[in-house]
Amino acid sequence: HTWLGRAFDPAGNVIPSKGEWRFSIDSASPKSTLTVGKPSRVVDNLIHVEDTTPFTINVDDGDGSGIALTEYKIDDGDWRPYLGPFTVPLDGHRLISYRSTDKAGNVEDAKTFAVFVEIQAPWDVNRDGRVDIFDLIVVAQHFGSSPAPGDALNPDVNRDGKVDLFDLILISRH
Question: pTM of the prediction?
Answer without folding.
Answer: 0.63
